[in-house]
Design goal:
CATH topology of the largest domain: Isopropylmalate Dehydrogenase
Radius of gyration: 27 Å
CATH superfamily of the largest domain: Isopropylmalate Dehydrogenase
Strand order of the largest sheet: 2-1-3-12-11-4-5-10-8-9
Strand content: 15-25%
Number of strands: 20
Largest sheet: 10 strands, mixed
Shape: elongated
């Protein structure tokens, strides 16, 4: 690990009363190099921080901590409340979980904020006026990482979206736009397909935006929205979206702006925050003094603003912009006809330090409002009236030619009760019984939907009775999903062809 300079342990202890303490993680791969560069620049600017270093990442994973972080490091994180983190490597296989996701979820870092700006002509970009901020939901969605193999042929992952989580990130996006003078917030979902998960996110967006009439707002389906990020990013201002989509379009935006190595990220919660680069640990160039520290630096700028040190953020960021403007570039952005000098990680940091106190002449200098504070409050809402109206019983079955009529007829005749009658059988979301098409491909994973024939309500005893009858008929049920109405509205999806 590269040692911290100029602070030694005794110096840090002496400064505890006057300096804000943050937690620092050097990470893996290029992490130690870009963190050393970032720390040296901040120290040269006298930002007034003291650092507690923790070990995270690959070594910690392999030492037996499946989350990639030790209990002692958790204690330091909770104490300091702010983490500046370099990229880490998550070992493949072995049940290792993403440390980034673990930290975000454990500390309630619900908002991932990623600004993307073009720096023409010094960093090549086809979109010289690009100035886009992606606000990504950071705790939910498919990043819950809940997966199960249910049959020999089918694996499931759960997409979990909550109403409070959606409202919190959407409100944050509008408050961010309001605080930083942004003119428009765009929501991106896939609710033409996922009508309940993404549909809820879109619905809440439509409700919240009414409270901000001064800010323009619109919505894009994520596939065409991603194309807009790639082809017309200058038409976007603030984008708010779900976890997975935000991760994907952030990399698109970073590349379109000039380089993934330039982008920083803020992870914001009510009590804690984490700041980082958006790129990975790049082990292929580790230790070669080649990495661009700009992504982590941009994360540090956001951290300083968050800590009430907006003047220091301005000082360093303007020096960084002047460095780019002077053509001092690392290899990822160096161009023969645009750059003056190709430098490594250390020399780039030295160049930024040399320019502290200078401002760019061609690029737009930054100026932060030191009084900006973003607070989001989502009041708890009363629970909806919940009525059990049916059950989906999932069955592992691959006998004979996988004739849906065979499984459907047996369930209808021998399993259905007065309260729960087989309504349909679907396979991979497509109705195959009754009247299914022979051409439909069928896996060994079947969804058998039972509902009350007269539309009445049920209780769990009715579900248990159906499962007993399914088992008695010789079918292997592997999971169930209860079907509910909430305040009279259907809370489950229909099948294709239904």
């Amino acid at each position: 690990m590269i040692p911290l300079q100029p602070f030694k342990k005794k110096d840090i202890q002496a400064l505890m009363g006057t300096q804000k303490r943050i937690t620092v993680a050097y990470g893996d791969g290029i992490g130690p190099e870009i963190m050393d560069a970032t720390i040296r620049i901040m120290d040269a600017a006298n930002v007034g921080l003291a650092y507690d270093v923790i070990e995270i990442g690959e070594k910690v994973y392999k030492a037996g901590h499946k989350s990639g972080i030790s209990p002692e490091s958790w204690d330091i994180l909770r104490q300091n409340k702010v983490l500046l983190k370099a990229p880490i490597t998550t070992p493949q296989g072995g049940g290792y979980k993403s440390l980034n996701v673990t930290i975000r979820k454990s500390l309630g870092l619900f908002a991932n904020v990623r600004p993307f700006r073009a720096y023409p002509p010094f960093v090549p970009s086809h979109f010289p006026h690009m100035d886009l901020v992606i606000v990504r939901e950071n705790e939910e969605d498919l990043y819950a990482g809940i997966e199960h193999q249910q049959t020999s042929e089918v694996v499931q992952t759960l997409k979990l979206i909550s109403e409070p989580g959606s409202e919190k990130i959407i409100r944050y996006a509008f408050e961010y736009a309001k605080a930083y003078g942004r003119k428009k917030v765009t929501c991106m979902t896939k609710d033409n397909i996922m009508k309940h998960t993404d549909g809820m996110f879109h619905r809440i967006f439509n409700e919240v935006r009414l409270e901000y009439p001064e800010i323009k707002s619109d919505h894009w389906i994520i596939d065409i929205g991603s194309a807009v990020v790639a082809a017309r990013p200058e038409s976007l201002d603030v984008v708010v979206t779900l976890n997975l989509y935000g991760d994907i379009i952030s990399d698109i935006a970073a590349e379109v702006a000039g380089s993934v190595g330039m982008a920083g990220s803020a992870n914001i919660g009510t009590n804690y925050s984490m700041f980082e680069a958006i790129h990975g640990s790049a082990p292929d160039i580790a230790g070669q003094d080649m990495a661009n520290p700009s992504g982590l630096l941009n994360g540090a700028f956001m951290m300083l603003v968050q800590l009430g040190k907006a003047d220091k953020a301005e000082l360093i960021q303007n020096a960084w912009l002047k460095t780019l403007e002077d053509g001092i570039h690392t290899g990822d952005v160096y161009r023969l006809n645009r750059s003056e000098k190709k430098v490594g990680t250390r020399e780039f940091a030295d160049a930024v330090i040399e320019r502290l106190g200078q401002v760019p002449e061609k690029l737009k200098a930054v100026k932060y409002n030191p009084d900006v504070k973003i607070q989001v409050v989502v009041p708890e809402k009363p629970a909806k009236k919940k009525e059990l109206v049916g059950v989906d019983v999932f069955i592992d079955w691959r006998e004979g030619t996988r004739d849906a009529n065979e499984i459907g007829d047996r369930l209808l005749k021998n399993v259905s009760t007065d309260k729960l009658k087989l309504d349909q059988v679907s396979n991979r979301g497509v109705v195959v019984y009754p009247n299914g098409m022979d051409e439909i491909f069928k896996s060994d994973h079947w969804r058998c939907r039972f509902t009350h024939p007269e539309g009445g309500t049920l209780d769990n005893a009715d579900i248990i009775e159906i499962l007993k009858r399914v088992q008695k008929e010789g079918f292997d049920f592997i999971k169930t999903e209860h079907l509910y109405h909430f305040d009279g509205e259907r809370g489950y999806s229909l099948s294709q062809g239904e």
